[in-house]
Design a protein that fits this description.
The protein is of the alpha+beta class. Helix content is 21%, strand content 41%. The protein has helices at residues 2-22, 80-83, 154-163; strands at 25-33, 36-41, 45-50, 64-70, 73-78, 96-100, 107-111, 113-121, 126-127, 137-143, 146-151.
């Protein structure tokens, strides 16, 4: 009888340990743009660079600020606030850029400040119901006492392709 009870307890402990191992986590980068907080998976960020000039491009949509030179490669600079429909969508004054990890394009977003890298369970992302690839946000994350929008980096490329006619 005691052996049966010990076996049941042991099996229960193994099951709960297996559940803990199965919890997947994601590292998120929390950053700000003009005082508003946003998040992006750190796996979607190739590099964070500072103090590089933006070279303006003529005849581009308002959300494209220009290009920056990263080790001889041009990266398109996007003002995310203009993409998100912010009426006061002036680009941040700080020369700070998130270079996005993309296989087929070279994109960066203009940000104001890096706040923190944080590891969260994948279940902490509150997904937007019926969200698609073209949606600018994946959902929200709880950061401190507020909900922070999680950016969908692939949506920027889709928007540019659509606006420039290469979709």
């Amino acid at each position: 009888m005691n052996e049966d009870l010990i076996n049941v307890i042991s099996e229960s402990q193994k099951a709960s340990e297996a559940q803990e191992v199965e919890k997947k986590t994601t590292v998120w980068l929390i950053f700000s743009i003009a005082g508003k907080k946003y998040a992006m998976r750190s796996a979607d960020v190739l590099e964070i660079i500072r103090d590089v000039p933006i070279y303006k491009l003529p005849f581009m949509p308002a959300y494209i600020e220009g290009v920056i030179n990263r080790r001889g490669d041009p990266f398109t600079v996007i003002n995310p606030l203009a993409v998100f429909g912010d009426t006061d969508a002036k680009p941040p004054e700080e020369p700070l850029f998130l270079i996005m990890k993309r296989d087929d394009d070279q994109l960066s977003i203009h940000i104001s400040d890096i706040l923190q890298f944080t590891e969260m369970a994948e279940s902490d992302l509150n997904l937007i119901p019926n969200g698609g690839d073209e949606d600018f946000f994946l959902g929200t994350l709880s950061y401190g006492h507020e909900e922070v929008p999680a950016i969908n980096p692939g949506s920027f490329e889709l928007l540019i392709r659509k606006d420039l006619g290469s979709a």
